[in-house]
Amino acid sequence: MKNILKVLFTICFLVIIAASCSKSDSQSTPELSFPAIKAAFGDNIDLNSLSNYSGQIKPAYIIKDNTGANPILNAKATLGRVLFYDKSLSVNNSVSCSSCHKQEFAFSDSALVSSAILGGVTARHSMRLVNSRFAVEQKFFWDERAASLELQTTQPMMDHSEMGFSGQNGRPAFSTLLTKLQGIPYYNELFKFAYNDVNVTESRLQECLAQFIRSIQSFDSKYDAGRVQVANDNQNFPNFTAEENSGKNLFITPPVFDANSSRIAGGVGCNACHNAPEFDIDPNSRNNGIIGVINGANRDLTVTRAPSLRDLTRVGGRVNSPMMHTGANRTVRAAINHYNTIALNQNQNPNLDARLAPNRIGQSLNLTENEVSALVAFLQTLSGTNVYTDKKWSDPFL
């Protein structure tokens, strides 16, 4: 009897200890309170349950990654999301990064030029930001003047016309923006959460914005559904139509030119500059035959940057934004036709990419209408759907 009582006592004692430990554990990690974030964003931002930016799945065949020394962390990407959509980053609280890079257009703008502060406009049309991380090219802006995505993120804030913190002609300097953000309660909570202090610095803005932008990825296209079923891009995709497979083969296969530069065999070689499966721009590309600027006749020979061709259109074929750095082409067919015939004029365009001047004369692909249609059909297979609706990339202020 004594032994039974001893066993029962031991069991009760262990149960009490276990309950006490469980209670202690639950009390040691209470949900943190963020009243300013709650007031500003409601349930759109929850620092106790962060959106997954860092652990997103990408296909095994996607191998390019320009993250470098700024890996994506959920806390900092969340802060980057708020910064991306916050109009407080402009001098008159009217423009944010998202004013030019809209989720509904694959983070580009359907307008030729985007709206800036005080009725102004941007000098160029806004480049798509989808899959910025998955590229060899690391420079940004159409003329590649930013050596990295980090450096690019704060330059529009300092631009006199775009967001206004230029320190010129009566406009406040960039330091004024840092002080302004430091005085906003939800940034105190966000920076404290991400960095353990409330200090707002340019390098922190760059770090967080770049992490958020690099998190924007699109790999749910018809192309991806086909690519995962084959060993390489040269094989026919089982889910493609005959026209789409024909367009893919034209895109990937280099052209063969005769002595007069008339294409006589092969494909059209788009892949030489826009390499599958990321479809990013070759960083060694030179001018593509477009030498003008938006709404003007000035020459521009330095432009070599281009976004990934992914989500050039939405499913169904609607173009997300004007194409080329001048926005000269409003349809995919028009963009293809630009590459069909390119004149070589050393005086007019001494920086033309050599791949567009075979045999040192102008390019003449001699594409048929059927070939153009096939290329259009293939490029439309690069369009996903999730990037346009995923909440973690959406406006938290709504």
Automatic annotation (TrEMBL):
Domain (Cytochrome c) ranges: 242-383
A GO molecular function held by the record: heme binding
Pfam families per UniProt: CCP_MauG
PROSITE patterns per record: CYTC, PROKAR_LIPOPROTEIN
Record has Cell membrane as a keyword: no
Subcellular location: Cell envelope
Claim: Oxidoreductase is one of the keywords in the record: yes
GO cellular component: cell envelope
Domain of life: Bacteria
InterPro entries in the cross-refs: Cyt_c-like_dom (IPR009056), Cyt_c-like_dom_sf (IPR036909), Cytochrome_c_Peroxidase/MauG (IPR051395), Di-haem_cyt_c_peroxidsae (IPR004852)
Signal peptide: 1-18
Alphabetized UniProt keyword annotations: Heme, Iron, Metal-binding, Oxidoreductase, Peroxidase, Signal
Listed name of the protein: Cytochrome c peroxidase
